[in-house]
Amino acid sequence: MASVSSKVRKAVDDATESNPDLQAQVAALKEDIANIAATLAKIGKTSAKEASSNASSTFEHARARGEDALDEIRSQAKALEDQLTETVRENPLTTVAVAAGVGFLLALIARR
What we know:
Blueprint: H1 4-18, H2 20-90, H3 92-111
Helix pairs in contact: 1-2, 2-3
């Protein structure tokens, strides 16, 4: 029993053999389909390249923003350190008292 696909091929082959104009049209149609497939392949490659470029650009932008944020955090930490150092130098006794109080509270918490 022949399949539908083979019956269609046989009918097309029989029709094209008896009609040269139909043969030319089928050949032109095959060429058009091949051109469409090639164009779609080019579009796919271009889209992939664009997506890769966009991803790379986004990554670089995010990395730059992360580095900027890290620099800002470092700057703020340095400013806080400088401020604490200055406070300790201006009030050494207060600093020792606060440190002792914090130590005492940590000892109470650690006992439990």
